[in-house]
């Protein structure tokens, strides 16, 4: 189950972008999810993210993020009306509480909580897409020339959790083949069985650390200034993706300066579409953000595009 949350090379087109292009694209998505307040804009970003996640065959992994996001959305919808009393449309007059006054719940506070939860779901989906789309080794190698030691530390730290999960699963299967039933017996017996499992995993981790140290020594790590070699080259698809990201950011900036994407919840919620410029600005931003999806479809069905990018 945990393996689906980490990067797996499936040979998909969306996984073939340069890490710098992916980082720029996801940064624009994250920035827009923080700047936009209009629920229609946030829903559109979420739909785009779902299509991208589907393009990297990650719907099963995103399901966990979706459930966690919906749960947090419900929590925010419950807590926010109890804290914020700025709405004008009161839907429930509660009792008078000490030091807090009358507990009135407004429609605007519930609405704001729902949109805040939606924003949180969009942000979680962005990080889910990052895990599925970017090889962490390639991303860390992108910064290895400027901060080699820091990148090594981050690489070892990020590698630790998926490696431990894989080793734990492997060791548990070996013990089960030897007749150890982890679901049999009382609580104390099961604790003893799992303690033996974690002891084996601890020894395995120590052996792995020794192997990493020997590998670093064999590569003369720390003996002098390190050299940097990378096979990740910027290709036309990367330039098109970066260009689409910059154009989307420019269009979004123009729209925000002209009120497109802004939204006010208090004291009375605004209308979702105030004029024709609101959906027009959204369509332009989504078009530029859809460049990776357009290239992905062209890669599948058009030989000319496939030969050029």
UniProtKB/TrEMBL annotation:
PANTHER family referenced in this protein's UniProt entry, alphabetically: PROTEIN ABCI12, CHLOROPLASTIC (PTHR33514:SF13)
InterPro entries from the UniProt entry: ABC/ECF_trnsptr_transmembrane
Cellular component annotations (GO), alphabetically ordered: plasma membrane
Keywords: Membrane, Transmembrane, Transmembrane helix
Protein name per UniProt: Energy-coupling factor transporter transmembrane protein EcfT
Main localization, broad class: membrane
Subcellular localization, as worded in the UniProt entry: Membrane
Membrane topology: Multi-pass membrane protein
Gene this chain is encoded by: ecfT_4
Membrane-crossing residue ranges in chain numbering: 12-32, 39-56, 68-88, 109-133, 239-257, 277-296
